[in-house]
Predict the structure.
Amino acid sequence: MNNSRPLRSLVWMLAASALSAQTLPPAAPPAQQPPKTSAEMTTRDEPAVFKARVNLVQVPVVVRDRQGKAVGNLKQEDFQLFDKGKPQYIARFTMETAAGRLSKAAAAANSAAPKSGEPARANDLPDAFTAYVFDDVHIVFGDLARARDAARRQIDKMRPTDRAAIFTTSGQNIQDFTDDRDLLHESLAKLRPTPISGQGTNRCPNMNYYMADMITNKHDPQVLLAATLDVRNCAMIDDTATAQRMAEAAASQEMNLGDHETRLTLGVLKDIVRRMAAMPGQRSIIVVSPGFITLSEHATDKTELMDRAIRANVLINALDARGLYTDMPDITRPGTNSTTSLVLSQMDRESARAQADVLAEMSSGTGGTFYQNSNDLDEGFTRLSAAPEYYYVLAFSPPNLKLDGSFHQLKVTVKAIKDTTTTARRGYYAPKHLEDPTETAKREVEEALFSREEMGDIPLELHTQFFKVGDDKARVSVLIKVELKHLKFRKEEDRNRNDLTVVAALFDRNGVYVTGNQKKIEMRLKDETVEKKLDGGLTIRSSFDVKPGNYAVRLVVRDTEGQLMSAQNGVVEIPY
Protein backbone atom coordinates (compact mmCIF):
# COMPACT_ATOMS: atom_id res chain seq x y z
CA MET A 1 0.00 0.00 0.00
CA ASN A 2 1.37 3.44 -0.88
CA ASN A 3 1.30 5.77 2.11
CA SER A 4 2.75 8.73 0.20
CA ARG A 5 -0.63 10.40 -0.19
CA PRO A 6 -3.96 10.35 1.65
CA LEU A 7 -6.31 7.64 0.50
CA ARG A 8 -9.53 8.80 -1.08
CA SER A 9 -11.79 5.89 -0.32
CA LEU A 10 -12.15 4.02 2.97
CA VAL A 11 -13.86 1.15 1.22
CA TRP A 12 -11.01 0.84 -1.28
CA MET A 13 -8.41 0.90 1.50
CA LEU A 14 -10.16 -1.71 3.60
CA ALA A 15 -10.72 -3.99 0.64
CA ALA A 16 -7.05 -3.69 -0.25
CA SER A 17 -5.66 -4.28 3.23
CA ALA A 18 -8.02 -6.12 5.58
CA LEU A 19 -7.24 -9.81 5.71
CA SER A 20 -10.52 -10.69 7.38
CA ALA A 21 -12.34 -9.57 4.27
CA GLN A 22 -10.19 -11.33 1.70
CA THR A 23 -8.19 -14.40 0.76
CA LEU A 24 -4.46 -14.49 1.30
CA PRO A 25 -2.62 -14.16 -1.98
CA PRO A 26 -0.98 -17.40 -3.11
CA ALA A 27 2.74 -17.64 -2.45
CA ALA A 28 5.36 -18.66 -4.92
CA PRO A 29 5.56 -22.40 -5.54
CA PRO A 30 7.47 -24.24 -2.80
CA ALA A 31 11.08 -25.01 -3.56
CA GLN A 32 10.83 -28.64 -2.50
CA GLN A 33 8.55 -31.59 -2.92
CA PRO A 34 6.32 -32.92 -0.14
CA PRO A 35 8.40 -34.93 2.33
CA LYS A 36 6.41 -38.14 1.80
CA THR A 37 4.40 -39.80 -0.87
CA SER A 38 0.83 -38.66 -1.36
CA ALA A 39 -0.38 -41.94 0.11
CA GLU A 40 0.96 -40.97 3.54
CA MET A 41 1.34 -37.20 3.52
CA THR A 42 -0.03 -34.47 1.28
CA THR A 43 0.82 -30.77 1.32
CA ARG A 44 -1.79 -28.45 -0.12
CA ASP A 45 -1.56 -24.70 -0.63
CA GLU A 46 -4.97 -23.25 0.02
CA PRO A 47 -6.50 -19.81 0.53
CA ALA A 48 -6.65 -18.78 4.19
CA VAL A 49 -10.24 -17.61 4.34
CA PHE A 50 -11.20 -16.77 7.91
CA LYS A 51 -14.63 -16.24 9.36
CA ALA A 52 -14.99 -15.03 12.93
CA ARG A 53 -17.99 -16.07 15.00
CA VAL A 54 -17.79 -17.18 18.61
CA ASN A 55 -20.00 -19.02 21.05
CA LEU A 56 -17.90 -18.10 24.09
CA VAL A 57 -19.03 -14.71 25.42
CA GLN A 58 -16.05 -12.53 26.35
CA VAL A 59 -16.48 -9.67 28.83
CA PRO A 60 -13.65 -7.10 29.17
CA VAL A 61 -13.51 -5.57 32.67
CA VAL A 62 -11.50 -2.63 34.02
CA VAL A 63 -11.36 -2.19 37.81
CA ARG A 64 -10.09 1.15 39.17
CA ASP A 65 -9.33 2.35 42.68
CA ARG A 66 -10.35 5.69 44.18
CA GLN A 67 -7.45 7.43 42.44
CA GLY A 68 -8.60 6.11 39.09
CA LYS A 69 -5.69 3.70 38.71
CA ALA A 70 -6.34 0.28 37.21
CA VAL A 71 -6.15 -2.57 39.73
CA GLY A 72 -3.94 -5.43 38.54
CA ASN A 73 -3.82 -7.97 41.37
CA LEU A 74 -7.26 -9.58 41.03
CA LYS A 75 -7.90 -13.26 40.41
CA GLN A 76 -10.73 -15.18 38.83
CA GLU A 77 -12.37 -15.91 42.17
CA ASP A 78 -12.60 -12.15 42.90
CA PHE A 79 -15.21 -11.68 40.17
CA GLN A 80 -18.89 -12.49 39.89
CA LEU A 81 -20.54 -12.49 36.47
CA PHE A 82 -24.29 -12.38 35.93
CA ASP A 83 -26.24 -13.03 32.74
CA LYS A 84 -29.82 -11.74 33.02
CA GLY A 85 -29.35 -11.73 36.78
CA LYS A 86 -28.19 -15.36 36.96
CA PRO A 87 -24.63 -16.12 38.16
CA GLN A 88 -22.35 -17.67 35.53
CA TYR A 89 -19.31 -19.91 35.73
CA ILE A 90 -16.24 -18.06 34.44
CA ALA A 91 -14.72 -20.60 32.07
CA ARG A 92 -11.75 -18.49 30.98
CA PHE A 93 -9.93 -15.71 32.78
CA THR A 94 -7.05 -13.59 31.52
CA MET A 95 -5.42 -10.38 32.66
CA GLU A 96 -4.05 -8.07 29.99
CA THR A 97 -1.45 -5.38 30.59
CA ALA A 98 -0.82 -2.12 28.78
CA ALA A 99 1.62 -3.97 26.56
CA GLY A 100 -1.26 -6.06 25.25
CA ARG A 101 -0.35 -9.44 23.86
CA LEU A 102 3.17 -8.60 22.88
CA SER A 103 5.56 -11.50 22.98
CA LYS A 104 8.47 -11.44 25.41
CA ALA A 105 10.81 -10.81 22.53
CA ALA A 106 8.71 -7.92 21.25
CA ALA A 107 8.41 -6.45 24.73
CA ALA A 108 12.17 -6.61 25.18
CA ALA A 109 12.71 -4.98 21.81
CA ASN A 110 10.18 -2.32 22.72
CA SER A 111 11.98 -1.51 25.99
CA ALA A 112 15.22 -1.07 24.09
CA ALA A 113 13.63 1.00 21.33
CA PRO A 114 14.52 4.69 20.94
CA LYS A 115 12.27 7.10 22.82
CA SER A 116 10.20 9.85 21.29
CA GLY A 117 12.34 12.24 19.28
CA GLU A 118 15.20 9.79 18.75
CA PRO A 119 15.95 8.57 15.23
CA ALA A 120 14.35 5.29 14.20
CA ARG A 121 16.52 2.26 13.61
CA ALA A 122 16.21 0.03 10.59
CA ASN A 123 14.80 -2.87 12.60
CA ASP A 124 12.27 -0.83 14.64
CA LEU A 125 9.16 -2.74 13.68
CA PRO A 126 5.83 -1.38 14.92
CA ASP A 127 4.25 -2.75 18.07
CA ALA A 128 1.50 -0.20 18.81
CA PHE A 129 -1.22 1.10 16.45
CA THR A 130 -3.61 3.96 17.17
CA ALA A 131 -6.48 4.89 14.86
CA TYR A 132 -7.82 8.41 15.37
CA VAL A 133 -11.43 8.35 14.17
CA PHE A 134 -12.96 11.81 13.77
CA ASP A 135 -16.75 11.80 13.63
CA ASP A 136 -16.93 14.61 11.09
CA VAL A 137 -20.55 13.68 10.31
CA HIS A 138 -21.82 14.74 13.75
CA ILE A 139 -19.20 17.22 15.02
CA VAL A 140 -19.34 21.03 14.75
CA PHE A 141 -16.40 23.08 13.52
CA GLY A 142 -15.33 24.63 16.84
CA ASP A 143 -15.16 21.25 18.58
CA LEU A 144 -13.40 19.67 15.62
CA ALA A 145 -10.76 22.41 15.49
CA ARG A 146 -9.90 22.03 19.19
CA ALA A 147 -9.79 18.23 18.98
CA ARG A 148 -7.73 18.33 15.80
CA ASP A 149 -5.08 20.57 17.40
CA ALA A 150 -4.88 18.37 20.50
CA ALA A 151 -4.52 15.26 18.34
CA ARG A 152 -1.68 16.92 16.43
CA ARG A 153 0.22 17.51 19.68
CA GLN A 154 -0.36 13.91 20.73
CA ILE A 155 0.92 12.59 17.40
CA ASP A 156 4.12 14.61 17.90
CA LYS A 157 4.86 12.33 20.89
CA MET A 158 4.92 9.13 18.82
CA ARG A 159 7.77 6.66 19.43
CA PRO A 160 9.63 5.06 16.50
CA THR A 161 7.66 1.83 17.06
CA ASP A 162 4.27 3.64 17.07
CA ARG A 163 2.00 3.89 14.05
CA ALA A 164 -1.05 6.12 13.72
CA ALA A 165 -3.83 6.59 11.19
CA ILE A 166 -6.50 9.22 10.59
CA PHE A 167 -10.02 8.06 9.73
CA THR A 168 -13.31 9.92 9.42
CA THR A 169 -16.88 8.71 9.56
CA SER A 170 -17.57 10.48 6.26
CA GLY A 171 -14.74 8.56 4.56
CA GLN A 172 -12.91 11.75 3.53
CA ASN A 173 -9.38 12.93 4.37
CA ILE A 174 -8.07 9.51 5.40
CA GLN A 175 -4.44 8.67 6.13
CA ASP A 176 -3.48 5.02 6.52
CA PHE A 177 -1.16 3.80 9.31
CA THR A 178 2.23 5.44 9.13
CA ASP A 179 5.01 6.89 11.28
CA ASP A 180 5.29 9.92 8.98
CA ARG A 181 4.05 12.79 11.14
CA ASP A 182 3.91 15.20 8.21
CA LEU A 183 1.40 13.00 6.44
CA LEU A 184 -0.67 12.71 9.60
CA HIS A 185 -0.59 16.50 10.15
CA GLU A 186 -1.56 17.07 6.54
CA SER A 187 -4.59 14.84 6.94
CA LEU A 188 -5.59 16.53 10.21
CA ALA A 189 -5.39 19.97 8.60
CA LYS A 190 -7.94 18.94 5.96
CA LEU A 191 -10.60 17.83 8.44
CA ARG A 192 -13.91 19.66 8.18
CA PRO A 193 -17.43 18.90 9.46
CA THR A 194 -19.25 16.84 6.83
CA PRO A 195 -22.86 16.54 8.02
CA ILE A 196 -25.45 14.60 6.08
CA SER A 197 -28.74 15.72 7.62
CA GLY A 198 -27.81 19.32 8.33
CA GLN A 199 -28.70 19.10 12.03
CA GLY A 200 -27.84 22.23 13.95
CA THR A 201 -29.05 24.69 11.29
CA ASN A 202 -32.15 26.86 11.73
CA ARG A 203 -34.80 24.85 9.99
CA CYS A 204 -38.56 24.89 10.13
CA PRO A 205 -39.38 23.18 12.40
CA ASN A 206 -36.40 22.66 14.71
CA MET A 207 -35.82 18.89 14.62
CA ASN A 208 -33.10 16.42 15.57
CA TYR A 209 -32.86 12.64 15.42
CA TYR A 210 -33.79 12.13 19.07
CA MET A 211 -36.84 14.33 18.72
CA ALA A 212 -37.84 12.63 15.47
CA ASP A 213 -37.70 9.26 17.22
CA MET A 214 -40.00 10.56 19.97
CA ILE A 215 -42.53 11.64 17.35
CA THR A 216 -42.28 8.82 14.79
CA ASN A 217 -41.57 5.73 16.91
CA LYS A 218 -42.65 6.62 20.44
CA HIS A 219 -45.65 8.76 19.40
CA ASP A 220 -45.07 11.30 22.16
CA PRO A 221 -47.98 13.78 21.96
CA GLN A 222 -46.15 16.53 23.87
CA VAL A 223 -43.17 16.50 21.52
CA LEU A 224 -45.46 16.42 18.46
CA LEU A 225 -47.41 19.40 19.84
CA ALA A 226 -44.20 21.35 20.38
CA ALA A 227 -43.07 20.66 16.81
CA THR A 228 -46.50 21.60 15.49
CA LEU A 229 -46.45 24.93 17.34
CA ASP A 230 -42.92 25.47 16.07
CA VAL A 231 -44.16 25.06 12.48
CA ARG A 232 -47.00 27.50 13.08
CA ASN A 233 -44.49 30.05 14.35
CA CYS A 234 -41.67 29.65 11.80
CA ALA A 235 -43.86 29.01 8.74
CA MET A 236 -46.62 31.39 9.89
CA ILE A 237 -49.36 28.80 9.34
CA ASP A 238 -52.62 29.19 11.23
CA ASP A 239 -54.08 25.76 10.37
CA THR A 240 -53.04 23.32 13.11
CA ALA A 241 -53.71 20.19 11.03
CA THR A 242 -51.47 21.42 8.23
CA ALA A 243 -48.77 22.39 10.70
CA GLN A 244 -48.92 18.93 12.33
CA ARG A 245 -48.54 17.20 8.98
CA MET A 246 -45.49 19.34 8.25
CA ALA A 247 -44.04 18.47 11.68
CA GLU A 248 -44.62 14.75 11.10
CA ALA A 249 -43.06 14.96 7.62
CA ALA A 250 -40.01 16.73 9.06
CA ALA A 251 -39.69 14.04 11.74
CA SER A 252 -39.93 11.28 9.12
CA GLN A 253 -37.24 12.92 7.00
CA GLU A 254 -34.99 13.37 10.04
CA MET A 255 -35.49 9.70 10.95
CA ASN A 256 -34.23 8.59 7.54
CA LEU A 257 -31.23 10.92 7.60
CA GLY A 258 -30.35 10.21 11.23
CA ASP A 259 -30.59 6.46 10.71
CA HIS A 260 -28.27 6.75 7.72
CA GLU A 261 -25.74 8.75 9.76
CA THR A 262 -25.78 6.24 12.62
CA ARG A 263 -25.44 3.20 10.38
CA LEU A 264 -22.65 4.92 8.47
CA THR A 265 -20.75 5.66 11.69
CA LEU A 266 -21.13 2.14 13.09
CA GLY A 267 -20.21 0.64 9.72
CA VAL A 268 -17.04 2.69 9.47
CA LEU A 269 -16.03 1.69 13.00
CA LYS A 270 -16.60 -2.00 12.22
CA ASP A 271 -14.49 -1.69 9.08
CA ILE A 272 -11.69 -0.01 11.03
CA VAL A 273 -11.74 -2.79 13.64
CA ARG A 274 -11.56 -5.33 10.80
CA ARG A 275 -8.68 -3.36 9.33
CA MET A 276 -6.82 -3.27 12.64
CA ALA A 277 -7.30 -7.00 13.17
CA ALA A 278 -4.62 -7.34 10.49
CA MET A 279 -2.06 -5.42 12.57
CA PRO A 280 0.45 -6.98 14.99
CA GLY A 281 0.85 -5.83 18.57
CA GLN A 282 -1.21 -3.39 20.65
CA ARG A 283 -4.21 -1.91 18.83
CA SER A 284 -6.51 0.89 19.95
CA ILE A 285 -9.07 3.25 18.47
CA ILE A 286 -9.77 6.79 19.68
CA VAL A 287 -13.22 7.96 18.57
CA VAL A 288 -13.38 11.76 18.60
CA SER A 289 -17.07 12.60 18.58
CA PRO A 290 -19.84 14.57 20.27
CA GLY A 291 -21.65 11.23 20.33
CA PHE A 292 -24.52 10.09 18.19
CA ILE A 293 -27.95 8.57 18.68
CA THR A 294 -28.54 4.83 18.43
CA LEU A 295 -32.00 3.31 18.54
CA SER A 296 -33.19 -0.23 19.23
CA GLU A 297 -32.76 -1.20 15.57
CA HIS A 298 -29.04 -0.40 15.86
CA ALA A 299 -28.46 -2.67 18.87
CA THR A 300 -27.31 -5.64 16.81
CA ASP A 301 -24.81 -3.49 14.91
CA LYS A 302 -23.37 -2.16 18.18
CA THR A 303 -23.04 -5.65 19.63
CA GLU A 304 -21.37 -6.93 16.45
CA LEU A 305 -18.94 -4.01 16.60
CA MET A 306 -17.98 -4.75 20.21
CA ASP A 307 -17.75 -8.50 19.60
CA ARG A 308 -15.46 -7.91 16.66
CA ALA A 309 -13.26 -5.54 18.67
CA ILE A 310 -12.99 -7.99 21.58
CA ARG A 311 -12.06 -10.87 19.29
CA ALA A 312 -9.43 -8.74 17.56
CA ASN A 313 -8.07 -7.41 20.89
CA VAL A 314 -8.81 -3.84 19.77
CA LEU A 315 -9.66 -1.30 22.48
CA ILE A 316 -12.25 1.33 21.53
CA ASN A 317 -11.68 4.56 23.44
CA ALA A 318 -13.83 7.67 23.07
CA LEU A 319 -13.29 11.38 23.60
CA ASP A 320 -16.35 13.61 23.91
CA ALA A 321 -15.37 16.42 21.56
CA ARG A 322 -17.87 18.80 23.20
CA GLY A 323 -15.55 19.12 26.17
CA LEU A 324 -17.16 20.66 29.24
CA TYR A 325 -20.73 21.57 28.33
CA THR A 326 -23.89 22.56 30.17
CA ASP A 327 -27.57 22.15 29.40
CA MET A 328 -28.15 25.70 28.22
CA PRO A 329 -30.88 26.74 25.77
CA ASP A 330 -29.82 27.04 22.14
CA ILE A 331 -29.80 30.80 21.51
CA THR A 332 -29.32 30.28 17.76
CA ARG A 333 -32.89 29.04 17.34
CA PRO A 334 -35.51 31.39 15.93
CA GLY A 335 -37.98 32.67 18.47
CA THR A 336 -40.67 30.23 19.59
CA ASN A 337 -43.42 30.22 22.16
CA SER A 338 -42.67 29.16 25.74
CA THR A 339 -44.21 25.69 25.34
CA THR A 340 -42.09 24.87 22.32
CA SER A 341 -38.91 26.29 23.87
CA LEU A 342 -39.41 24.22 27.01
CA VAL A 343 -39.85 20.96 25.07
CA LEU A 344 -36.98 21.69 22.69
CA SER A 345 -34.63 22.38 25.61
CA GLN A 346 -35.70 19.09 27.21
CA MET A 347 -35.06 17.25 23.94
CA ASP A 348 -31.60 18.81 23.72
CA ARG A 349 -30.71 17.65 27.23
CA GLU A 350 -31.97 14.11 26.67
CA SER A 351 -30.31 13.93 23.25
CA ALA A 352 -26.96 15.06 24.69
CA ARG A 353 -27.09 12.35 27.34
CA ALA A 354 -28.05 9.71 24.79
CA GLN A 355 -25.18 10.78 22.53
CA ALA A 356 -22.69 10.33 25.36
CA ASP A 357 -24.21 6.98 26.35
CA VAL A 358 -23.24 5.30 23.08
CA LEU A 359 -19.61 6.43 23.46
CA ALA A 360 -19.54 5.12 27.03
CA GLU A 361 -21.12 1.83 25.94
CA MET A 362 -18.59 1.18 23.18
CA SER A 363 -15.68 2.01 25.48
CA SER A 364 -16.79 -0.08 28.44
CA GLY A 365 -17.81 -2.91 26.15
CA THR A 366 -14.28 -3.35 24.79
CA GLY A 367 -12.14 -2.51 27.82
CA GLY A 368 -11.48 1.04 26.64
CA THR A 369 -11.84 4.44 28.32
CA PHE A 370 -14.36 7.26 27.86
CA TYR A 371 -13.10 10.81 28.44
CA GLN A 372 -15.81 13.47 28.83
CA ASN A 373 -16.84 16.74 30.50
CA SER A 374 -13.40 18.32 30.30
CA ASN A 375 -11.87 20.97 28.07
CA ASP A 376 -8.38 19.57 28.64
CA LEU A 377 -8.33 17.59 25.41
CA ASP A 378 -4.55 17.17 25.59
CA GLU A 379 -4.97 15.23 28.82
CA GLY A 380 -7.80 13.30 27.20
CA PHE A 381 -5.68 12.16 24.27
CA THR A 382 -2.81 11.27 26.61
CA ARG A 383 -5.08 9.05 28.70
CA LEU A 384 -6.76 7.42 25.73
CA SER A 385 -3.49 6.79 23.90
CA ALA A 386 -2.32 4.61 26.78
CA ALA A 387 -4.27 1.38 27.22
CA PRO A 388 -5.42 0.65 30.78
CA GLU A 389 -2.44 -0.61 32.74
CA TYR A 390 -4.46 -3.69 33.60
CA TYR A 391 -7.73 -5.09 32.38
CA TYR A 392 -9.37 -8.48 32.60
CA VAL A 393 -11.26 -10.61 30.12
CA LEU A 394 -13.86 -12.93 31.62
CA ALA A 395 -15.39 -15.53 29.33
CA PHE A 396 -18.31 -17.86 29.85
CA SER A 397 -20.48 -20.24 27.85
CA PRO A 398 -24.16 -19.50 28.51
CA PRO A 399 -25.94 -22.74 29.51
CA ASN A 400 -29.11 -23.66 27.64
CA LEU A 401 -28.65 -20.66 25.39
CA LYS A 402 -31.57 -20.12 23.05
CA LEU A 403 -30.38 -19.31 19.55
CA ASP A 404 -32.95 -16.56 19.09
CA GLY A 405 -30.87 -13.41 18.78
CA SER A 406 -32.28 -12.01 22.06
CA PHE A 407 -30.45 -9.45 24.23
CA HIS A 408 -28.74 -10.62 27.43
CA GLN A 409 -27.90 -8.01 30.06
CA LEU A 410 -24.58 -8.56 31.84
CA LYS A 411 -23.36 -7.44 35.25
CA VAL A 412 -19.89 -7.85 36.75
CA THR A 413 -19.10 -7.31 40.43
CA VAL A 414 -15.87 -7.56 42.44
CA LYS A 415 -16.15 -9.46 45.72
CA ALA A 416 -14.70 -8.34 49.06
CA ILE A 417 -12.81 -5.34 47.63
CA LYS A 418 -13.99 -1.86 48.62
CA ASP A 419 -13.65 1.56 47.03
CA THR A 420 -13.33 0.35 43.44
CA THR A 421 -15.30 1.10 40.31
CA THR A 422 -15.90 -1.51 37.65
CA THR A 423 -16.38 -0.85 33.97
CA ALA A 424 -17.54 -3.82 31.94
CA ARG A 425 -19.48 -4.88 28.91
CA ARG A 426 -23.19 -4.24 29.38
CA GLY A 427 -24.64 -7.11 27.38
CA TYR A 428 -24.63 -9.24 24.25
CA TYR A 429 -27.03 -10.71 21.70
CA ALA A 430 -27.49 -14.46 21.49
CA PRO A 431 -26.27 -15.97 18.21
CA LYS A 432 -28.66 -17.55 15.77
CA HIS A 433 -26.47 -20.60 15.21
CA LEU A 434 -23.47 -22.15 16.93
CA GLU A 435 -19.94 -22.13 15.59
CA ASP A 436 -18.75 -25.39 14.04
CA PRO A 437 -15.23 -26.81 14.59
CA THR A 438 -14.00 -25.60 11.21
CA GLU A 439 -14.99 -22.02 11.98
CA THR A 440 -13.38 -22.31 15.41
CA ALA A 441 -10.08 -23.43 13.88
CA LYS A 442 -10.09 -20.65 11.31
CA ARG A 443 -10.83 -18.03 13.94
CA GLU A 444 -8.10 -19.26 16.29
CA VAL A 445 -5.51 -19.26 13.51
CA GLU A 446 -6.55 -15.78 12.39
CA GLU A 447 -6.35 -14.36 15.91
CA ALA A 448 -2.92 -15.93 16.43
CA LEU A 449 -1.61 -14.68 13.08
CA PHE A 450 -2.37 -11.03 13.88
CA SER A 451 -1.09 -11.18 17.42
CA ARG A 452 2.53 -10.80 18.52
CA GLU A 453 2.17 -13.44 21.22
CA GLU A 454 4.53 -16.39 20.91
CA MET A 455 3.09 -19.83 21.72
CA GLY A 456 4.91 -23.14 21.95
CA ASP A 457 2.47 -26.04 22.15
CA ILE A 458 4.17 -27.59 19.13
CA PRO A 459 8.00 -27.34 19.08
CA LEU A 460 9.15 -25.70 15.86
CA GLU A 461 12.00 -23.75 14.33
CA LEU A 462 11.70 -20.73 12.05
CA HIS A 463 14.45 -19.67 9.65
CA THR A 464 14.37 -17.05 6.88
CA GLN A 465 16.60 -16.31 3.94
CA PHE A 466 16.35 -14.13 0.84
CA PHE A 467 18.05 -13.52 -2.45
CA LYS A 468 17.73 -10.60 -4.84
CA VAL A 469 16.30 -11.32 -8.27
CA GLY A 470 16.48 -7.72 -9.46
CA ASP A 471 16.92 -4.15 -8.29
CA ASP A 472 13.37 -3.95 -6.94
CA LYS A 473 12.50 -7.60 -6.39
CA ALA A 474 13.56 -10.31 -3.97
CA ARG A 475 12.42 -13.75 -2.92
CA VAL A 476 12.01 -14.55 0.78
CA SER A 477 12.03 -18.17 1.87
CA VAL A 478 10.56 -19.17 5.22
CA LEU A 479 11.85 -22.55 6.38
CA ILE A 480 9.81 -24.24 9.09
CA LYS A 481 10.78 -27.37 10.99
CA VAL A 482 7.99 -28.91 13.06
CA GLU A 483 8.55 -31.59 15.68
CA LEU A 484 5.75 -34.14 15.79
CA LYS A 485 6.50 -35.75 19.15
CA HIS A 486 3.74 -33.88 21.00
CA LEU A 487 1.04 -34.45 18.38
CA LYS A 488 -1.81 -36.88 18.81
CA PHE A 489 -2.79 -39.15 15.95
CA ARG A 490 -6.17 -40.71 15.39
CA LYS A 491 -6.09 -44.35 14.31
CA GLU A 492 -8.15 -45.12 11.25
CA GLU A 493 -7.68 -48.61 9.81
CA ASP A 494 -3.92 -48.95 9.22
CA ARG A 495 -3.22 -45.21 9.18
CA ASN A 496 -2.52 -42.54 11.81
CA ARG A 497 -4.37 -39.34 10.96
CA ASN A 498 -3.77 -35.71 11.80
CA ASP A 499 -3.69 -32.44 9.86
CA LEU A 500 -1.40 -29.47 10.30
CA THR A 501 -2.39 -25.95 9.27
CA VAL A 502 0.69 -23.79 8.64
CA VAL A 503 0.23 -20.07 7.97
CA ALA A 504 3.12 -17.71 7.24
CA ALA A 505 2.74 -13.99 6.57
CA LEU A 506 4.89 -10.91 6.00
CA PHE A 507 4.11 -7.44 7.40
CA ASP A 508 5.85 -4.24 6.30
CA ARG A 509 7.51 -1.70 8.60
CA ASN A 510 4.14 -0.03 9.23
CA GLY A 511 2.57 -3.32 10.28
CA VAL A 512 0.53 -3.57 7.09
CA TYR A 513 -0.08 -7.09 5.83
CA VAL A 514 1.89 -7.65 2.62
CA THR A 515 1.57 -11.29 1.66
CA GLY A 516 1.15 -14.73 3.11
CA ASN A 517 0.00 -18.26 2.46
CA GLN A 518 -1.59 -21.21 4.16
CA LYS A 519 -0.55 -24.82 3.77
CA LYS A 520 -2.44 -27.83 4.99
CA ILE A 521 -0.40 -30.93 5.70
CA GLU A 522 -2.62 -34.01 5.62
CA MET A 523 -0.87 -36.84 7.45
CA ARG A 524 -2.08 -40.41 6.90
CA LEU A 525 0.93 -42.25 8.27
CA LYS A 526 1.65 -45.93 8.68
CA ASP A 527 2.90 -47.08 12.07
CA GLU A 528 6.50 -47.42 10.93
CA THR A 529 6.41 -43.93 9.39
CA VAL A 530 5.13 -42.37 12.61
CA GLU A 531 8.22 -43.59 14.45
CA LYS A 532 10.52 -42.06 11.84
CA LYS A 533 8.66 -38.76 11.80
CA LEU A 534 8.65 -38.49 15.57
CA ASP A 535 12.44 -38.57 15.44
CA GLY A 536 13.07 -36.50 12.34
CA GLY A 537 10.24 -33.99 12.34
CA LEU A 538 8.71 -32.29 9.33
CA THR A 539 10.24 -29.57 7.17
CA ILE A 540 8.07 -27.07 5.24
CA ARG A 541 9.11 -24.20 3.03
CA SER A 542 7.14 -21.13 1.93
CA SER A 543 8.44 -18.56 -0.55
CA PHE A 544 7.31 -15.00 -1.23
CA ASP A 545 8.21 -12.44 -3.89
CA VAL A 546 8.52 -8.97 -2.35
CA LYS A 547 10.29 -5.67 -2.79
CA PRO A 548 13.43 -4.86 -0.77
CA GLY A 549 12.71 -3.56 2.72
CA ASN A 550 12.22 -4.61 6.34
CA TYR A 551 9.55 -7.19 7.09
CA ALA A 552 8.16 -8.88 10.17
CA VAL A 553 7.53 -12.60 9.68
CA ARG A 554 4.69 -14.29 11.54
CA LEU A 555 4.28 -18.06 11.65
CA VAL A 556 1.33 -20.01 13.08
CA VAL A 557 1.01 -23.81 13.21
CA ARG A 558 -2.11 -25.63 14.46
CA ASP A 559 -3.01 -29.31 14.45
CA THR A 560 -6.50 -30.77 14.12
CA GLU A 561 -6.58 -33.72 16.52
CA GLY A 562 -5.00 -32.14 19.61
CA GLN A 563 -5.89 -28.53 18.70
CA LEU A 564 -2.39 -27.48 19.74
CA MET A 565 -0.98 -24.22 18.42
CA SER A 566 2.41 -22.56 18.13
CA ALA A 567 3.36 -19.11 16.88
CA GLN A 568 6.71 -17.42 16.31
CA ASN A 569 7.96 -14.05 15.13
CA GLY A 570 10.87 -13.32 12.84
CA VAL A 571 12.43 -10.41 10.98
CA VAL A 572 13.96 -10.24 7.52
CA GLU A 573 15.86 -7.18 6.24
CA ILE A 574 16.40 -6.95 2.48
CA PRO A 575 18.75 -4.11 1.46
CA TYR A 576 17.88 -1.91 -1.49
User: Anything to note?
Assistant: The domain at 54-98+390-431 is CATH 2.60.40 (Immunoglobulin-like). The CA atoms of residues 64 and 70 lie 4 Å apart.
